[in-house]
Amino acid sequence: MDYSENIKLRKAQKKVEILKGFYSHLLVYIVVNIALFVVRGHVLEFFKNQSPDKNFIEWVDWNILIVPVFWGIGLLFHAAKAFQYKLKFIKNWEEKQMEKFLK
Question: What transmembrane ranges does the database entry give (predicted)?
Fold first, then answer.
């Protein structure tokens, strides 16, 4: 195996590892959030029976609902990195900078 094939193989292995990491992250996100929503009703019932403070119950409910939102935002960034997605304006800026430095 020559040098260029070895480099291509290493890049391919690295890309596969990055994709595996993203899909593992996605699987954990799905499982944990399904569990959160299943358990949510039981947790709220528990606190309704234990705590007469309605604000505390709403606080618990909102915290359970906000976890998937913020985690989902992080997951989107992970997906963008894993699939090497670049916004169009960033790509255009990079192309303009390359042309500028090549002149």
Answer: 21-39, 59-80
Give the residue from 31, 59, 28 showing the smallest Cα distance to 43. 59
Q: Read off the pLDDT of residues 58-92 as tens digits, 9 standing for 90 and up.
A: 887 888 889 999 999 999 999 988 888 766 666 77
CA atoms of 29 and 35, how far apart (whole Å)? 10
Name the domain count of the chain: 1
What is the secondary structure of 10-59 as a DSSP string?
HHHHHHHHHHHHHHHHHHHHHHHHHHHHHHHHHHHHHHHHH---HHHHHH
- What pLDDT digit, counting tens, does each position of 11-36 carry? 889 989 999 999 999 999 999 999 98
